[in-house]
Amino acid sequence: MQISSVNDVKIYNLSYGKSLPEWLSDRKKRQLQKKDVDIQRRIELIQDFEMPTVCTSIKVSRDGQFILAAGTYKPRIRCYDTYQLSLKFERCLDSDVVAFDILSDDYSKLVFLHCDRYVEFHSQHGHYYKTRIPKFGRDFAYHYPSCDLYFVGTSSEIYRLNLEQGRFLNSLQTDAVEHNVCDINPVHHLFATGTTEGKVECWDPRVRNRVGQLDCALSSITEGTEVQGLPAVSALRFNGSLTMAVGTSTGQVLLYDLRSSRPLLVKDHYYNLPIKSLNFHEQLDLVLSADSKIIKIWNKDNGKVFSSIEPQASINDVCIYPHSGMLFTANEDPKMNTFYIPALGPAPRWCSFLDNLTEELEESPETTVYDDYKFVTRKDLENLGLSHLVGSSLLRAYMHGFFMDIRLYHKVKTMANPFAYEEYRKEKIRQKIEESRTQRVQIKKLPKVNKELALKLMEEGDDEAELASRKKKGKVLPSILGDDRFQVMFENPDYQVDEQSEEYRLLNPIVSKVGQKRKKKLLFERAAEEEEEPEGRPSSEEESSDDDKSWVDEVREKQKTGQPRFFHLKAGEEFRSFGDVARKQRLQKVSLEERLKFEEHSGTSNMADTAVGSKQLTFTLKKSEQQRKQQQAEREHHEERKKLRRSAGHLSSGRGRGRGWGGGRGRGRGGGWGRY
User: Fold this and answer.
1) Alpha-carbon span 65 to 82, nearest angstrom
2) pTM higher than 0.85 for the full model?
């Protein structure tokens, strides 16, 4: 639902919003209603209130229960039941409907005038009878007292078909060449027809004679009206017994009193479009006139604008629901619009809940739409050269700017910037070229700032995408490179990550092999970029350090020559053999216990090259005086025991070995030793 306010009159567009296709399942519709906010806010007052392509005309039955609409394609008539808020039936026809009318209080008697001269009658069950008129018809009217149908069209004659007798009667001969519209007064049954010459002829059905003629084309030309052709009568409507409204093909509406040949009021739409529909609102003495662009609501006594409605699609017909503030429009669009204006009257009985809904919406503020005005700021006025108009009646102060007439704004803007169209055209061409470029093969280029971080994120993004593709319902998270919030991180040099800083070393204590491979890849890319740059052109890597440039030169020369390079050791740098790398790789594969044994055996200290350096801290625990004395006493005792040595030579110099050395029978108590 869309809410707008024109001249402090609130207008509710009940048909605004997205419509769901009929072929969608109920489950899909429920899912869309949960996700889409526009679908949640829409109000489907009448189900399937639309046509396949275009709706040409729409009417409401006299009892107010049924709404009938004719449209295409294919040609059809649809009837909606307001008590059920749904479609009652649909009937397809052989050709397009030019005009139709409801002869009964409900839908049981219908008459259709087709574009191929056929007149078709429908009853409650469907098609009833079809006949043909001599010339192509444009409009018709039904005379209830005599049961006559009056047809007007591309002929000077007015054809009469009597439905009681079932035959054509003598036609009425007029002075006009062609007729566009006709209508019958509901009070005294005066028949009026509008011609292509801009005249209105009035006939009395009782005597079949013309009783009057009005020249509306001459009366529609007022002071300031631009005449581009002969105005023809395009719309005609009676109100009461004496008032008649005439619409012309040049966009004027004339109000007549049948007792006078001069119009009481001439209302101009200022769009130079034919008036397609005229309706009267008797409770408030208002006139609703509509062309293909806008519906204007104005007072029939003084012509003051009450409000206006401007739908998105072109208008074909307008119908007011009786004794209410609701109106329907037939448009050049599948959807038929439904507007509710509480200022015109209450909601119909079958949708009385709209009154409660609008009362709740009254509490929430909405933006005000000003008709034919443009909001400009002081800066806009300076650019247009209209600063001297501040304080005059041409500018109306509002908030931080001013409102000015839209016509004045367009004129001044055209004079101030005559090449605006050329700039707009160039911008559109540039956008088309950019769209075509997106279809080409995209080459990933690293940014100027934080190249290593960008390369790391790109590799991680590829890994995540591959992992998500393996899963059935995996979703790839958005990358930082494609997020606008982190765009400055790869453009501003102040955000460059310093990998040599102490903070970075503490956060990243271990440099992985993947990081080393990434660094080599980045160096090769830099070398390739510099090879592609022509001589004399400054390199894009001038912000990098001198060491990086030397590395790039060395890598490039090594690629060209393939010869080994010799390096100089810097001052304070310790030389290590080339076998250290292989030895360290072997040590990393063995267990910790074996590694410690190997280091103790070789007598080398554990010097590990890490991101925090290859330093080693040696310390000794401080012992108390009592512990040192105890350790000293133990060392002295061991030394004293080493000096006291006993000789065992007397054991082998005896007469015999004795019985204690395993030779005799008797053994000592000690098992293997004899007495000595």
Assistant:
1) 5
2) no
